[in-house]
Amino acid sequence: MKLDIYVNYPGTCKEAFQFYEQHLGGKITMMMPHQQQTNSANIPENWKEAILHARIEIGNTVLMGADIPNAEPMRSAYLSLRLNTVEEAEKLYALLSVDGQVFMKMEETFFATRFAMLRDKFGTSWMLLHES
User: Looking at the whole model, is its pTM more than 0.85?
Assistant: First the structure.
């Protein structure tokens, strides 16, 4: 059994996945806009480029996503990145927090040399962790 993650975006799925591919070392393995589906005649013109289904592999994890009208930011779940170095944790914190919302700034805790909680500019919530 394998558990994967599926995230809905309000029209920014392609931009988010390309950002994660570039900055998190992921690999997009699928990106299908609504206009490519068989019955695309009924899709509103302004939604044809929106993503119907996308898939990216980040490390050993698969993240899937789609654009959904009126999708809201993640509220009660976080994608957790366990990082190998303090420098990597600090770099990704600086990158993912731009135009986002920081819930807990990057700092040392009793369980980690670096830990932060934030929501990026695409609405995805992240926990960044470099364990002691």
Answer: yes
